[in-house]
Amino acid sequence: MQIAIIGAGVIGTATAWELLRQGKRVILLEGREGAGLGTSYANAGQLSYDYVAPLADPGVFHDLPKWLLNPSSPLRFRPRPDPRQWCWLAAFLKACNTSTAQASTKALLRLSYLSRDTLHAWLRETPIDFHHRDNGKLIAYRSPHLLEKARRQVAYQAGHGSAQRILDRREAVAVEPALANLGDALAGCVYTPTEEVGDCHLFTRGLFEHVRAHPSASVRTGAHVARLRTREGRVTGAQLDNGDIIEADHFVVANGLQSYDLLKTQGLTVPLYGLKGYSLSLPLPPDPPDGQSGGPPAAPSVSVTDYERRTVYARLGNVLRIAAMVDMGDSSPDIDPARVRHLKAEVRGSFPQLAIEQAEAWAGERPATPDGKPIIDRSRRFENLWLNLGHGALGFTLACGSAVLLNALMTNGRGPIDASPFGIR
Ligand SMILES: Cc1cc2nc3c(=O)[nH]c(=O)nc-3n(C[C@H](O)[C@H](O)[C@H](O)COP(=O)(O)OP(=O)(O)OC[C@H]3O[C@@H](n4cnc5c(N)ncnc54)[C@H](O)[C@@H]3O)c2cc1C
């Protein structure tokens, strides 16, 4: 069975690898010159297996005026005269209730644990150097009130297999001494010792090389799919910009945010919208020998999320990756200098010893569904068309599990976890 996969971001590449592992023949089509150059390029690097709660949560109604009115809010909403934006927003607001948020969290936890187990199994078979570390994650809270709210989420997730605990300020600084830079502003942390980090681009590129080397695979870069060709309820080919037609028995649409436009060519609509975010990559000098720095370390070593500022810090090799911002309604690929200035100012306020001016800025768009769950399913209209898209803020975390689930659905119609939450909506 020959399967064409469209898009070599982390999702498409992981899908290709799993299909090959399960004995299928694969052709992986990527529009750019290499793998992982889209949203998978410079994300926050979190393999955030226990931290999957969707953005759509009842607290949104309280925060919405701030998103609209405060230009330096970490979440910003710019209304556009665009029906796609308004449809997405209406579905998003509809998902902002406790029962939907909890059901999504439960489904996402199952997928993320599947993903973690899968990644570990793959790496045992096929090592990839992507600065992968498993030294835990701290969510830092400045407000005691929000820390209390987090305590309730921790209690909810504990019932679904999550091993998290609440640390007071002193305990948090003992785990990550760089948090002493925040002084009394730090109320406490949620600590998840099992969380991991890695460089998503290096992972995708490494996995892509394994796909390329596989005898049952062929890969094409610079192969942008302009449209799908269909006949009598089946996809017959993927037509490239240069007119070439790629034929296969099945087709998997895994081209991130651009899936929306590609599916539109066949009149299919998916609830996908881009939530733009920014990252800074800062090369770090070597750590001074223990006890010789005379103060707290300049940069955290454990992964840290500054909750109120929605800013994430991860060490990837000798680089500190800092990511933040959720901008809804800015679909240009441009880096907004005001957003980068604001992010650098936030970092300077928290970790003043960092030479943050030297950091390299990047922007990408999270391919988000309103309820925060990806779509991993077969098309209702074309029997050999499959979707693996809409991973929003969690694509790196969920990629391997999504690949396993899709392969299982293609093979025997059911997955190792309940696939229904990830069906077409
Ligand atoms: C600031 C920021 C921080 C983030 N942090 C994290 C994090 O810490 N952890 C986490 O799990 N996730 C994180 N994410 C989310 C994660 O990066 C995305 O969910 C993930 O990269 C999506 O992967 P993808 O493969 O679906 O899309 P992409 O990486 O965008 O890949 C799609 C690929 O398809 C190709 N393509 C597009 N159209 C076509 C076409 N027509 N024909 C052929 N090829 C095509 C593109 O060139 C691209 O290579 C973050 C995102 C952002 C923006």
Keywords:
single chain, 425 residues, alpha/beta, FAD/NAD(P)-binding domain, D-Amino Acid Oxidase, Chain A, domain 2, nine-stranded mixed beta sheet, six-stranded mixed beta sheet, 20 strands, binds flavin-adenine dinucleotide
Structural features, described:
The protein has 425 residues and is of the alpha/beta class. It contains 10 helices and 20 strands. The model has no long low-confidence stretch (mean pLDDT 94). Helix 4 packs across helix 10. The protein starts with a strand and ends in a 13-residue tail after the last helix. Flavin-adenine dinucleotide (FAD) binds next to helix 1, strand 14, strand 18 and helix 10.
Offer a quick outline of the entry:
This protein has helices at residues 10-21, 60-69, 83-94, 98-125, 144-158, 169-175, 200-213, 259-264, 337-350, 395-412; strands at residues 2-6, 25-29, 46-47, 75-77, 137-141, 165-168, 188-192, 196-197, 217-220, 225-231, 234-240, 245-246, 250-253, 273-283, 303-306, 311-316, 319-328, 360-368, 375-378, 385-389.
Please give the share of residues in helix: 25-40%
CATH class bucket of the largest domain: Alpha Beta
Residue runs with pLDDT of under 50 for 5 or more positions = none
Sheet bearing the most strands, described?
9 strands, mixed
Bound molecules: flavin-adenine dinucleotide
CATH architecture of the largest domain, please? 2-Layer Sandwich
Q: What's the structural domain tally? A: 2
Specify Rg, calculated over alpha carbons. 21 Å
Shape: globular
Mean pLDDT, as a whole number?
A: 94
CATH level-4 homologous superfamily of the largest domain: D-Amino Acid Oxidase, subunit A, domain 2
Number of helices: 10
Secondary structure tally: strands: 20
CATH topology of the largest domain: D-Amino Acid Oxidase, Chain A, domain 2
Write the element-wise H/E pattern from the N-terminal end onward: EHEEHEHHEHEHEEHEEEEEHEEEEHEEEH
Structural class from helices and strands?
alpha/beta
Q: Report strand %.
A: 15-25%
N- to C-terminal distance:
28 Å
